[in-house]
């Protein structure tokens, strides 16, 4: 089947989503996520593109970017090739890391830019990983609030802040208010309409997730780390509570309680 032609953005703005092959994690620890952000910053050199928002989840990434000196296809090739080289070399593996091509959608309106930025920053909240957008370390949210944030050099914040106000203090205040509004918006969503992961693959993924978190005995580890693990596993696999219980060895009622909190 021929590939569907991408819609070219008239404004140059795009929402990009890349995800792990077979829904597997593309980040096994924080060092991997930091490396990806460093690659984003490096590839922005010479105004190749402008990065306005990002969020790194364990098995996928959302980006809001604008073309600069290069078109989006070249930009994404630079980013993904560099990260795959790093990842494969570090973990002594070969083969595909990302699933197919990156997904993209053109962004033309200011209102869509704002709504999309909110959706990207709320990803960890919707996934149940954190309770507030500012609590998540691996997104661009805090770069908008503090020019000395670790990721402030990687993110071009002026465009979105200017949509709120010319006064930087007021713009940041309105940014926080808007970004934390409760919505049900979906942009390039990757989970709701997908089939659950194959159970055999899910078992292998679960062991990888345990290893990446340094968990040796799930019964003995801290409640918070286990809750986050189960929420991430559910989000990635979309398996039923019954199957998650069978794979993890946890009680179904306990899993249900974790997912509801």
Write a structural description:
It contains nine helices and four strands; from the N terminus they run βαββαβααααααα. The protein is globular and about 55 Å long. With 261 residues, the protein is an alpha+beta fold. A hairpin with a 3-residue loop joins strand 2 (49-56) and strand 3 (60-67). Helices cover 43% and strands 11% of the residues. The protein has a four-stranded antiparallel beta sheet, with helices on both faces. The chain starts with 12 loop residues before the first strand and ends with a helix. It has helices spanning 30-43, 72-90, 110-126, 158-162, 168-179, 199-212, 223-237, 241-248, 252-260, and strands spanning 13-19, 49-56, 60-67, 103-107.
- List how many beta strands DSSP finds: 4
* Relative helix content: 40-55%
Query: How much is the average pLDDT?
Result: 86
Largest sheet: 4 strands, antiparallel
Features:
9 helices, 261 residues, 4 strands, 4-stranded antiparallel beta sheet
Summarize the structure.
The chain is about 45% helix and about 10% strand.
């Amino acid at each position: 089947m021929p590939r569907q032609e991408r819609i070219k953005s008239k404004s140059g703005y795009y929402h990009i989503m890349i995800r792990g092959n077979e829904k597997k994690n593309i980040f096994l620890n924080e060092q991997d996520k930091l490396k990806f952000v460093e690659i984003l910053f490096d590839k922005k050199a010479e105004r190749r593109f402008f990065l306005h928002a990002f969020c790194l989840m364990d098995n996928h990434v959302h980006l809001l970017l604008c073309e600069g000196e290069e078109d989006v296809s070249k930009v994404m090739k630079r980013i993904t090739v560099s990260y795959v080289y790093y990842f494969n070399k570090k973990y002594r593996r070969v083969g595909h890391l990302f699933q197919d091509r990156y997904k993209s959608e053109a962004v033309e309106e200011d209102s869509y830019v704002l709504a999309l930025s909110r959706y990207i920053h709320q990803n960890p909240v919707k996934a149940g990983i954190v309770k507030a957008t500012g609590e998540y370390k691996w997104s661009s949210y805090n770069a908008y609030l503090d020019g000395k944030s670790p990721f402030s050099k990687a993110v071009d914040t002026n465009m979105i802040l200017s949509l709120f106000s010319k006064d930087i203090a007021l713009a940041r205040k309105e940014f926080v208010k808007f970004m934390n509004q409760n919505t049900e918006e979906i942009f390039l969503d990757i989970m709701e309409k997908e089939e659950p992961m194959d159970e055999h693959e899910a078992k292998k993924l679960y062991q990888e997730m345990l290893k990446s978190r340094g968990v040796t005995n799930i019964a003995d580890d801290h409640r918070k780390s286990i809750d986050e693990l189960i929420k991430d596993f559910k989000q990635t696999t979309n398996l039923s509570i019954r199957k998650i219980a069978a794979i993890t060895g946890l009680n179904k009622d306990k899993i249900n309680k974790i997912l509801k909190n």
